Amino acid sequence: MECFIDGKPTCERTFWNRLNVLANFQQKEMIMDGLKVRVAESVYWIQPKKG
């Protein structure tokens, strides 16, 4: 899985640490469903690794 914050690749640990502080449960669920979600003025999303 690749994690992105504002279009920049981010390590998974940083991605989830920030989300656990800033996002509510519903926002996390939407991200896990593959949607791009705005949280605290940044856009977060995940996608499967290519290759």
Could you walk me through the main structural features you see in this protein, from its secondary elements to its overall organization?
A hairpin with a 2-residue loop joins strand 1 and strand 2. The relative contact order is 0.28. The protein is α+β, with helices and mostly antiparallel strands. The termini are close together. It has a four-stranded antiparallel β-sheet, with helices on one face. It has two helices and four strands, in the order ββααββ. The model has no long low-confidence stretch (mean pLDDT 95). It is globular and about 30 Å long. The longest helix is centred in the middle third of the chain and has 11 residues.
How is this fold's topology laid out?
Blueprint: E1 2-5, E2 8-10, H1 12-22, H2 25-32, E3 37-39, E4 42-47
Antiparallel strand pairs: 1-2, 1-4, 3-4
